[in-house]
Amino acid sequence: MSVLELKDIRKTYTVKPPVEVLKGVDLTVQAGERIAIVGHSGAGKSTLLNIVGLLDEPSDGSYRLAGEETKSLSARRRDRLRANMLGFVFQDYHVLGHRTVIENLELKLAINSIPLKKRKEMVDRVLGQVGLDHRGDSLTRLLSGGEKQRLAIGRAMLTSPQVLLADEPTGNLDEQNAGTVLNLFDEQAAGDVAVVVITHDERISNWADRVLHLIDGRIEK
């Protein structure tokens, strides 16, 4: 079953002169698939990820997420669909160093309007999954790079999304920590979560079910 489907997605930035970044991207991702998207700098990978993540809108084309056409959605519905369907993992973690591990996770739940009585159970579950249950009260700035990335993955997993979107998630990690990240992604894929990763890392290319090359604004297999 496909969880997301892009047809003839185009993105042009209206500067002078206009810059066409995506030139007709077609992409269908099934539940539980592990997808790696590779391409040189400036190929449009981040633009594509932002569109899939409902952080940006295409100039043209169709994007269906969980069967729902996204171009006709209200801003409120887009926000709700993003919060419930998608999880994001970034290379530079995007965690709050002056907050504890638990506080970083609870903030995500507060933003998503999760009731207080459910938050502890959800946080405890994710801390166990990513192996940070012994670090819950630690300030995030004191974590290692690998621990910060595991926290970022845990935060993305909190609301049980159907799609995980990751931008260079192993770029700053050594072999051991990169392996831990890929194992966490494997666990999610085994639970029918689609994992879409933008990467330059050959380790992820070897791990993925499909490697797609973004070249001159189009996907080539």
UniProtKB/TrEMBL annotation:
Pfam families: ABC_tran (PF00005)
Protein name from the UniProt record: ABC transporter ATP-binding protein
Keyword Protein biosynthesis listed: no
Keywords: ATP-binding, Nucleotide-binding, Transport
SUPFAM superfamilies: P-loop containing nucleoside triphosphate hydrolases (SSF52540)
One function term, GO molecular function aspect: ATP hydrolysis activity
Taxonomy, superkingdom: Bacteria
Domain ABC transporter positions: 4-221
